[in-house]
TrEMBL record, chain A:
It comes from Bradyrhizobium cytisi. Coiled coil: none annotated. Gene3D superfamilies: MetI-like. One of its GO terms (cellular component) is plasma membrane. Pfam families: BPD_transp_1. This is ABC transporter permease. The chain crosses the membrane at residues 21-41, 67-91, 103-126, 154-177, 198-231, 251-274. The keyword Acyltransferase does not apply. Residues 68-274 form the ABC transmembrane type-1 domain. It comes from the Bacteria. It is a multi-pass membrane protein. It is found in: Cell membrane. InterPro entries: MetI-like, MetI-like_sf. GO terms for biological process: transmembrane transport.
Length: 287, 271
């Protein structure tokens, strides 16, 4: 009966197998980020004078702060639109047969795997002056002159919402699949209506999925540089493009590093707030 | 009376949810369909609906050598990055998947972090490090950068596949006298292969589509397809891009269909 200790051995592999990737990440991921942090703490391009000048510049500059603010706001708007549109898809998924389920999943998945440039390009075609929306509105006589949809906040939000929708919908489908369908029936047979059951039972129990979806959608929306720049145009500036302009066009690497660190911290803050909420909601869901 | 009220209420709920779900699904699918239709236009603009239909923009695409060159580069970089991701990622997944130790969980978080961190910030950071150590940007730096942002997909899908593996299978194999390597080759690998393939597929697609890392880590001679397309779109709205987009959409649909057959991709991503 000496197999008990050996049985643990055969089902697990040594941590040594993780060494190559760990080393790869140390050299090509952790070291660059440390170098980024190091340069951001210098006041000159050569990295000779330590100081918080870059951060002070960012935090006292109304323009930089407005770019940060509009980026964070954009993320919130996109996340809200994705949640409102994505939840009913997940709900519908749980109510249809297996064939339709596969079709729904594939419809949701396709944009995730289609090139972001292609998806963004599609929105240029839809939102443009001669695009499908303006053509329809004009032929119905609702508007005389084409509406300006491209290069507006509305355009950026709707395009980003479509681009990021899978990231919201997939965790929601998983979360709704884990809810015991008997709870729904119990609630209804006890006299609660469908709306009430939805808001008091289904929505709270799916909170872990909602939070996972919101985290992914938010992080992806604020970093989605291609969609932001192509649909937003030159008028609207968000953090990724601001970073790129400072680094590439102006070659101001210390300031670009500080922008990167501030942006990184903003993303991490949002992710950890959501993660904490997720942990609390799991406790609630399990209770 | 109350029963009737409740059914009306239930109908209103189902109606609203179904309508929103259908609108959402249409919003998801419509852009791809619009691009497919516009790419067959006979006109010079992206007008919708097109004034007439032709294949002229596909003929134009056939001769667009700049796009061909960029596509070739993107394909080569994506293949190398995917290959490297499989080798490094599968080994790492084997090590961390069944371990509950703190170091395994920390490594897991480390390997997943490129998924949430802004890729543009990583691209800039990698460029600064490469220039500090005197390594010029080249296809090699591109492959390294792409591997960092693509390997999480391989690790995550392999870990998920390993988690579904029955430990008793491995124990029986060992009891029957198979060596660890033999058990790995004949039992573990065949069972986790679909997971590895699914992860590698997503890694490949995300490398092929990557802009933020490529922007910083490519050299002037290495044009990448998504960057070329992006810059073309910033300048002018060329209908050739619509033809190229349609080709990419069709290729993606076909690849997803194959992957669905081989790996059950949809079930994997919905769980």
């Amino acid at each position: 009966m000496g197999t008990a200790p050996a049985s643990r051995d055969v089902t697990s592999y040594g941590m040594g197998l993780a060494a190559p990737l760990a080393l790869f990440f140390l050299v090509f991921f952790v070291a660059p980020l440390l170098q980024l942090l190091w340069l951001s703490l210098h006041n000159d391009t050569a990295g000779l004078h330590w100081g918080l000048g870059q951060y002070l510049h960012f935090l006292t500059d109304p323009f930089s702060l407005s770019v940060l603010g509009s980026t964070l706001l954009l993320g919130a708007e996109v996340t809200a639109v994705c949640l409102v549109l994505g939840f009913p898809i997940a709900w519908l998924y749980q109510r249809v047969g297996p064939r339709l389920q596969t079709i729904i999943i594939l419809i949701v998945l396709l944009p995730l795997l289609t090139s972001v440039v292609v998806r963004t390009f599609a929105w240029i075609v839809i939102l443009g002056r001669q695009g499908i929306i303006n053509a329809t509105l004009q032929s119905l006589g609702i508007v005389d002159t084409p509406l300006k949809l491209l290069y507006t906040q509305f355009g950026v939000v709707i395009a980003l919402a479509q681009v990021q929708m899978p990231l919201m919908t997939l965790p929601l489908i998983t979360a709704l699949g884990r809810i015991d369908p008997n709870l729904d029936d119990a609630s209804c047979s006890l006299g609660a209506g469908s709306w009430r059951t939805f808001f008091r039972i289904v929505l709270p129990l799916s909170l872990p999925g909602v939070i996972a979806g919101c985290t992914l959608t938010y992080a992806a929306a604020i970093t989605a540089f291609i969609t932001q720049s192509l649909i937003g145009g030159g008028q609207m500036l968000f953090m990724p493009m601001y970073l790129y302009q400072q680094a590439s066009t102006l070659q101001n690497w210390p300031f670009a590093s500080a922008i990167s660190i501030i942006f990184l911290l903003a993303v991490l803050a949002v992710v950890s707030v959501f993660t904490t909420l997720g942990r609390m909601s799991r406790g609630y869901g399990g209770a | 009376m109350s029963g009737r009220k409740r059914t009306l209420e239930a109908i209103s709920f189902e109606f609203v949810m179904t309508v929103i779900a259908i609108i959402a699904l249409v919003i998801i699918i419509a852009p791809s369909l619009v691009v497919l239709i516009v790419s067959f236009t006979s006109g010079f603009s992206l007008r919708f609906p097109p004034p007439g239909y032709s294949l002229r923009w596909y003929a134009e695409l056939w001769n667009a050598w700049q796009l061909h060159f960029a596509a070739k580069n993107s394909l080569i970089v994506a293949l190398w990055a995917t290959g490297l991701s499989i080798v490094l990622g599968v080994a790492a997944a084997l090590a961390i998947s069944r371990s509950q130790t703190l170091s395994a969980r920390l490594l897991d978080s480390l390997f997943m972090s490129p998924l949430v961190l802004p890729a543009l910030a990583f691209g800039l950071a990698a460029l600064m490090l490469f220039s500090l150590v005197g390594l010029p940007v080249s296809p090699l730096t591109l492959v390294i950068g792409h591997t960092v942002v693509c390997v999480p997909y391989v690790v995550r899908n392999t870990v998920a596949a390993l988690a579904q593996l029955e430990p008793t299978l491995l124990e029986s194999s060992a009891v029957l006298g198979a060596s660890r390597l033999y058990t790995f080759r004949r039992i573990v690998l065949p069972l986790i292969r679909p997971g590895i393939i699914a992860g590698a597929f997503i890694a490949f697609m995300s490398s092929f589509d990557n802009v933020p890392v490529s922007l910083f880590l490519r050299d002037a001679a290495t044009d990448m397809l998504p960057i070329r397309m992006w810059q073309d779109l910033e300048g002018k709205l060329d209908v050739t891009i619509a033809a190229l987009s349609s080709v990419l959409i069709i290729a993606t649909v076909l690849l997803v269909a194959v992957m669905e057959r081989v790996t059950g991709l949809s079930r994997r991503l919905a769980n």
